[in-house]
Amino acid sequence: MDDRNAPPLNPLPPVVWLLALPMIAAEFAFSLGEGGRFFGPEAAGWRIAAMEQFGFFPEYWRARFAVGDVDFALLLRLVAYPFLHSDITSTLFGVVILLALGKFVGEVFRWWALVAVFFGASVLGALVYAVVPGINAPLFGAYPGDYGLIGAFTFLLWVRLVATGANQYRAFSMIGFLMLFQLLFGVLFGGNWNWVADIAGFAAGFFLSFVVAPGGWARVRARIRQR
Predict the structure, then answer these.
(1) Among 26, 92, 141, 190, fewest CB within 10 Å belongs to which?
(2) How buried is residue 32: exposed, middle or buried, by Cβ count under 10 Å (0-12/13-18/19+)?
(3) Which residues neighbour 110 within 8 Å (Cβ) at sequence distance 6 or greater?
């Protein structure tokens, strides 16, 4: 018998909302400020000011790192840039992916493991982005962290396929489709180098899952041995 009091949608893990709400609040404030009707004329520059203070600038990072001038403010950018987006559309897609993948991953991972994947992917994505020569465009937005969750989701699919003896490479169909879509979009409309951070974020999320997933590598190894 159906439970009439059950929610129509499965609730999201609270930690996913804790990640998403600052993005939503920031975009709400930026959008209202840019409209010119709220908070005064200075609010029109809030988005740019926040990006200058908390965005990840690879050229700036390389210059500071080269002379050993790495302080807290610089490191803070690695975990702050995911909460800033260039416009409302970018925020919308970033938040939707976070909510969708966060729900699937959060149903299996502990809350701290999900946070570790999101921020681990964001940090590694930014560092790899900075290491690639010639990339100078600033990096901001939730996408490297989102791709980390895609990596964790892929890990869960991969474990299931390995356990059932199915073709384990099917687990990577999502990331393959997303990369193909980004390639086609770049060819048709002109792209950027953000995909470097996204791919690094995916790899970070996938391999971090071996450590932070329930049972971790031991469970994966045991299931492989049972084949």
Answers:
(1) 190
(2) middle
(3) 212, 214
